[in-house]
Write a structure and sequence with these properties.
This protein is α+β, with helices and mostly antiparallel strands. It is built from 13 helices and five strands. It has helices at residues 3-12, 22-32, 37-44, 48-56, 63-72, 77-86, 104-116, 139-142, 156-161, 173-191, 194-204, 251-254, 266-280; strands spanning 122-125, 131-134, 227-231, 234-243, 257-263. Strands 2-1-5-4-3 form a five-stranded antiparallel beta sheet. A hairpin with a 5-residue loop joins strand 1 and strand 2. Helix 3 (37-44) crosses helix 4 and helix 5 (63-72) runs antiparallel to helix 6 (77-86). The longest helix is centred in the middle third of the chain and has 19 residues, at 173-191. The chain is elongated and about 65 Å long.
């Protein structure tokens, strides 16, 4: 097999054909988005009768109609490809490996962001929360984690909440755990991805010495949910931001997230800056 043919197959090989028909998938996604047939037909500017026929299989959608409905259902690129395949059309959005040549500019941008965020930790994850890349400063968190949890493919949520992971060192474990599980549940509901639902079930089964109601009101002094990690140098007080690509046309790129950690107080900033200075001095 020549290189061009191999790359072409690779770009779409991760797309799985659903056993459900396109009508059943459309109905499932519409209900998942809590839309009536009338609401979706109005958004897509088609008749309710036409949409009903599409969902029941009495009409077959065109390629353009599939993409139009997928857009109004706010589907991820991976799910748009699956919808196209279920309707009998080829997927239109490629899926490239992160290290593939065609993602060179993306890798360069991501790694520039990671380097620029030093001395503060930053991590890149995919849709399933698997570790894709990170900067050197993430070691201030990962060196508290059992190495077995960091072996590829490492899942950052598992490494965070597992009893052999970061969890025993998190001062506000109940609060942070509730925050992560809430994000994961919302993502699982939005995407309909069963692997995320399975991951949520696994994480909820981990012990937590500091359980808290998931809908507890935050302290008046908090403006974000902090991550408070106990280290020999003291307690690190961190908050995070999440960045994604604005106009992705590749499945892999659309599912990348860069989570950046920032110091929430001056003492944490001092510790992180000091760690970088020690690393630069060769200690």
């Amino acid at each position: 097999m020549d290189t061009a043919q191999s790359m072409s197959q690779h770009r779409f090989m991760a797309v799985t054909v659903s056993k459900s028909g396109v009508g059943e998938l459309l109905r499932d996604w519409r209900r998942r988005r809590r839309l009536s047939q009338l609401e979706l037909s109005n958004r897509a500017e088609i008749s309710t009768r036409h949409l009903s026929f599409l969902e029941t299989g009495r009409s077959v959608p065109s390629r353009e109609m599939v993409l139009q409905l997928a857009d109004h259902l706010d589907l991820m690129l991976r799910d748009r490809n699956r919808l196209l395949l279920a309707a009998g059309f080829a997927p239109v959005y490629p899926e490239s490996a992160f290290e593939a040549p065609e993602l060179g500019a993306v890798r360069s941008a991501v790694r520039q962001v990671l380097r620029g965020h030093e001395p503060y930790p930053a991590v890149v994850v995919d849709r399933s929360w698997q570790l894709v890349d990170a900067n050197q400063s993430l070691a201030i968190l990962t060196d508290l984690v059992d190495p077995s949890l960091l072996a590829p493919p490492a899942n950052v949520l598992r490494a965070s909440l597992h009893p052999n992971g970061l969890a025993p060192h998190i001062v506000n474990l109940g609060e942070w755990r509730a925050h992560l599980l809430h994000r994961l549940r919302r993502q699982a509901e939005f995407s309909g991805d069963p692997t995320l639902a399975e991951l949520e079930d696994e994480l909820r089964g981990y012990p937590c010495r500091d359980p808290r109601p998931e809908h507890d009101l935050p302290p008046a002094s908090n403006i974000v949910v902090p991550l408070r990690v106990r280290r020999p140098e003291g307690v690190l007080n961190l908050f995070t931001t999440v960045a994604t690509f604005g106009t992705p046309l590749d499945v892999t790129v659309s599912e990348l997230s860069i989570e950046s950690f920032y110091p929430a107080d001056e003492e944490t900033s001092r510790v992180l800056r000091g760690t970088r200075e020690l690393a630069g001095a060769g200690y």
